């Protein structure tokens, strides 16, 4: 299989899916509060491994927070999922790949892209969540290995 961004001109994004979203089934992976953007990663900047590593770093940052409630969330997340990409995948985390056009064709607007490829997509999550799920593909486990 060719790399998603090579030769086709199609631009892809990744969506990281927590175990609770995955287990909820249906379209839960693409539902957020109306004022919130969907957290995505641009595939030309980030890899599936990097998408999970981003979550691990975020949990470690929470663990160092001066706010006890935030700190406890980070500690819980690391205790439940471990500190490696492999352990997070084993704990039920998934990464989905979609063409960027899946969002733009539905009127989504992207916020600024951060240096690590993270970007928020703003649109009608409730209306399009099921369609986005149908247009997504799960990144296979072997793509997480060098």
Essential attributes:
146 residues, alpha+beta, 6 helices, globular, disordered N terminus
Number of E strands: 6
Give Rg in angstroms.
15 Å
Strand percentage: 15-25%
Overall mean pLDDT stands at 90
Structural class designation: alpha+beta
Helix content: 25-40%
**Which spans have pLDDT < 50 for at least 5 consecutive residues?**
1-7
Instruction: Please report the distance between the alpha carbons of the first and last residues.
Output: 15 Å
Q: Record the strand order, biggest sheet.
A: 4-5-2-1-3-6
As for the number of domains, it is 1
Please, how many helices? 6
Order of helices and strands: EHEHHHEHEEHE
The largest sheet is:
6 strands, antiparallel
Shape: globular
Structural features, described:
The chain is an alpha+beta fold and 146 residues long. It is 39% helix and 18% strand. Strands 4-5-2-1-3-6 form a six-stranded antiparallel sheet. A hairpin with a 7-residue loop joins β4 (109-110) and β5. α2 (48-63) packs across α3 (68-81). The longest helix has 16 residues, at 48-63.
Describe the structure concisely for a colleague.
The chain is α+β, with helices and mostly antiparallel strands and 146 residues long. The protein has helices at residues 19-24, 48-63, 68-81, 85-90, 101-104, 125-135; strands spanning 12-17, 38-42, 94-99, 109-110, 118-122, 137-138.
